[in-house]
Design a protein that fits this description.
Elements (H helix, E strand, L loop, with lengths): L2 H21 L14 H9 L4 E7 L2 E6 L1 E6 L2 E6 L13 E3 L2 E6 L2 E5 L17 E2 L2 E2 L4 H26 L8 H21 L8 H17 L14 H18 L2 H8 L6 H47 L5 H38 L5
Antiparallel strand pairs: 1-2, 3-4, 3-9, 5-6, 6-7, 7-8
Helix pairs in contact: 1-9, 2-8, 3-4, 3-5, 4-5, 4-9, 5-9, 6-8, 6-9, 8-9
């Protein structure tokens, strides 16, 4: 790792510590300091949100608001998340388009017409509110658009570089991208799918590899306050579903025969293996979904837990240890960002190869 990279990682760890210092000592209405709750803080940073909370300055939050887009009985309702004034407990009621809205744990609820406050049951569920259709631009959605725009810029710039090159020698960003693209082709596509069939799957393999990798990297940038798209199970589930659909559509006669009527084994064993193989069809994408989600989320939770030690022990003396270990885990996470993109891509290619493999005699 170069010195400049080490400096960037160190800066990220220190920025994370500073941002924690602003959020770790929230005050109650009567001015008394709340007891620091590491679980609440970690879940707040890991889950999706309707705004980018950067840090607190002079007990005032500094954040980037995002659009709230709701479909209610009165039609489309839009406003900015700043209307809630950083309230996530349902105390702030926003009145728009004839409706009353509150935010509870990053979920938007619409109050009944005659309600003046949120009423909770014993399980702390709202009893006088319902969920409208929520199409809001959350920070994960926003960062997904940013990553798509960045991917388009990178690949269009790379293509333009090759078009302008008279001798086909890559320059600029194309010189950086070519080894990565060749790596995905020669180390993932060809060996997993086969020499004669890998080309039609390369656009998908390249897309998910760079898409996952870039979003994993974005999740490590503290100023984005944990815009952890790859740590959202809905995101990983969507990618796994695409892999499942492509695998199923690509399946040839030999693939389906091995699932429903395994060749080369006695009939009782064929009947026994058939339900296992059918279950295996769905287990594969589920494992893809959970593996990416769990590994990325676990890394963030570990870093946040280590930083929480400073406020749990209420001692500055523990800060060097927490920051040092957080820095170490952050360096590992930088490597994991690429490893998890590689694993998801190579397993997808493996499933495509299994689906298109010809029968051997």
């Amino acid at each position: 790792m170069t010195l400049s990279t080490f400096k960037n990682v160190l800066f990220s760890a220190l920025f994370l510590a500073i941002s924690f210092a602003g959020s770790a000592s929230e005050n109650t209405e009567n001015g008394k300091e709340k007891e620091f709750n590491p679980k609440e803080m970690i879940l707040h940073h890991v889950k999706d949100a309707h705004e980018f909370h950067v840090l607190d300055w002079n007990e005032k939050p500094i954040s980037l608001s995002l659009p709230i887009i709701l479909w209610t009985d009165n039609g489309l309702t839009t406003f900015m998340s700043s209307a809630f004034h950083h309230d996530d407990e349902g105390h702030t009621i926003v009145e728009k388009n004839g409706g009353k809205f509150v935010k509870l744990h990053e979920k938007i609820y619409q109050l009944d017409a005659d309600a003046t406050a949120v009423v909770f049951d014993e399980a702390h569920h709202p009893t006088n509110a319902s969920k409208p259709l929520d199409f809001s631009i959350t920070r994960n959605v926003f960062m997904m658009w940013v990553s798509v725009a960045l991917l388009l810029f990178i690949f269009l710039t790379t293509a333009r570089s090759y078009k302008k090159s008279e001798d086909g020698v890559p320059t600029g960003i194309a010189g950086f991208m070519e080894p990565l693209i060749v790596f995905v082709r020669d180390e993932i596509g060809r060996p997993m799918i086969g020499e004669h069939k890998y080309k039609k799957y390369m656009p998908y393999l390249l897309t998910i590899f760079f898409f996952i990798w870039i979003n994993n990297i974005f999740g490590l940038i503290p100023i984005l306050n944990g815009a952890n798209l790859s740590g959202n199970i809905a995101f990983t589930a969507t990618l796994a579903v695409f892999t499942f659909i492509i695998t199923t559509v690509s399946g040839n006669k030999n693939y389906w025969k091995h699932i429903f009527w395994m060749p080369g084994v006695p009939v009782p064993m064929k009947i026994f293996l058939m339900p296992i193989e059918i279950i295996g069809m769905f287990v594969k994408p589920i494992s893809l979904m959970i593996r990416l989600f769990a590994n990325i989320t676990a890394g963030h939770v570990i870093i946040l837990a280590l930083m929480s030690l400073i406020f749990v022990f209420k001692s500055v003396a523990i800060a060097p240890v927490s920051v040092a270990f957080s820095l170490f885990i952050t360096i590992i996470e930088i490597i994991v960002t690429a490893i998890q993109a590689y694993i998801f891509t190579i397993l997808s290619a493996l499933y495509f190869g299994m689906a298109t493999e010809e029968e051997h005699h």
